[in-house]
Design brief:
With 127 residues, the protein is mainly alpha-helical. It is built from 4 helices and no strands.
């Protein structure tokens, strides 16, 4: 047998279950990550609307501003989703799943905290 064939030997059932379990667990955390991004998108929209009204804009301007903010945020989030799914899948394949999940959630949590921090900072300045 060649070394390639030896590397591709069939793993035991417990190894298969462990690998499948890692993928299921990884994608469960990925679903939680997506839920947090949806929360962030709604939070950004609410922040933009409140700040735009606080700055004295009328309803038509506020609607346009909030739609543009959601559009740009959604494009950035879509790129983040594509990158993080690939990053997570490679992490599972390299047995670094927890490290990769932690990094994804740190970035997501930081984005939520920055959004809330900017909102409260602007409310203190203009409110």
């Amino acid at each position: 047998m060649t070394s390639d064939n030896q590397d591709r030997k069939i793993t035991s059932k417990t190894d298969r279950f462990r690998i499948v379990g890692n993928y299921v667990l990884g994608y469960l955390f990925f679903a939680i990550f997506l839920f947090l991004l949806v929360f962030l998108l709604f939070r950004i929209r609410a922040n933009v609307i409140q700040i735009a009204f606080l700055l004295g804009n009328n309803e038509v301007k506020v609607k346009g501003i909030s739609n543009l903010a959601v559009l740009f945020s959604a494009i950035i989030m879509l790129a983040g989703i594509v990158f993080s799914e690939d990053y997570l899948r490679k992490g599972i394949a390299q047995n670094r799943m927890w490290k990769h999940i932690l990094r994804i959630f740190i970035v997501t949590g930081s984005a939520i905290l920055v959004s809330l921090g900017l909102y409260y900072a602007l409310m203190l300045i203009f409110g």
